[in-house]
Amino acid sequence: MRILHTSDWHLGRSFHRVSLLTAQRAFLDHLVETVRTREIDAVLVAGDVYDRAVPPLAAVELFDDALHRLAGLGVPTVMISGNHDSARRLGVGSGLMRRAGIHLRTDPADCGTPVLLADGHGPVALYGLPYLEPAMVRDELGAGRATHAEVLGAAMDRVRADLADRPAGTRSVVLAHAFVTGGTVSDSERDISVGGVAAVPAAVFDGVDYAALGHLHGCQTLSDRVRYSGSPLAYSFSEAGHRKSSWLIDLDAAGAVHAERIDCPVPRPLARIRGPLEDLLADPALGAHEQAWVEATLTDTARPHEPMARLGKRFPHLVSLVFDPDEGPARSLASYAQRLRGRGDQEIAEDFVAHVRSGRAADEAERAELRSAIDEVRLDDAVHEVAR
Fold first, then answer.
1. In terms of CB atoms within 10 Å, which of 151, 168, 342, 382 comes out highest?
2. Residue 342 pLDDT class (50, 70, 90 cuts)
3. What pTM does this model have?
């Protein structure tokens, strides 16, 4: 069986206030054409279809058009909700869509109920595990503790139990949206840590032939059978070195995995440039980046006059300007966003405590209080989202 594994479309997202709708439409055109020309048997979308719980109308229309085109090809599509999606909104109409071969898995209760497909070698069971917010699904899944590892482990227990009752030789695929140990993060992924712990071990997927993962935006292989497809577009400058692609997975008669990367169209390359303003304006080696989306980091010890306007004449697609003086008191001009880059909610809160107390860091009891408060806010947000 030939499967196309994608994830993290983030429809409706912009890049430093630049709309990506045209680029996302180009990706979906590429996706449909790949399905048609490479004779794909099933399309997998491992979460974060949209960028936010209530997406803009243009993003919904783009999604609707993509589903119609995939259904028109007669190729089954299985997709799960991610941590950016509203599971309930995404799942609206799933019963009707199923008749057209579009399988939306957004309810944790359905973790052990597969989409059943078949090829010339027999059945293939595809299990969709939507993003599982630990505190919200712990009781429903019978998990021991409200952690990502526990709830995902409980969901996989249901998968393995169902698979054990199926005919011998049934091959299996799991879609999941999670941070799995060994994965490499980017700046554009929303923190999903609970109690300071976000990662789950790859061994949680033991017993299935292939785990199609979403959440991390870089395409990566954790093992031959456990892979992230990554996002089809770059959503932060931390992804400047990424090769954006999908996985074409051939699952043979014995369940062995043969993988090929299918490159996604690149709307515009990303470039990070750094140095004093005058050097960036004059350096001929930077000519290669003049049509790229550019993040410029200025190292001048004093803030130059109108740097954005001056750089914009050479780099018309400059979208981010950062000040990082090489030395001296001007270092305090470094942007707040830059100082927070790559730091989770818990680290930011602890840094704030140390800052307001003149360097005295939070002790263990205080760190536990902060962790509890952050988890409570995250749960509160999730409950309100469900209520809406």
1. 151
2. low
3. 0.83
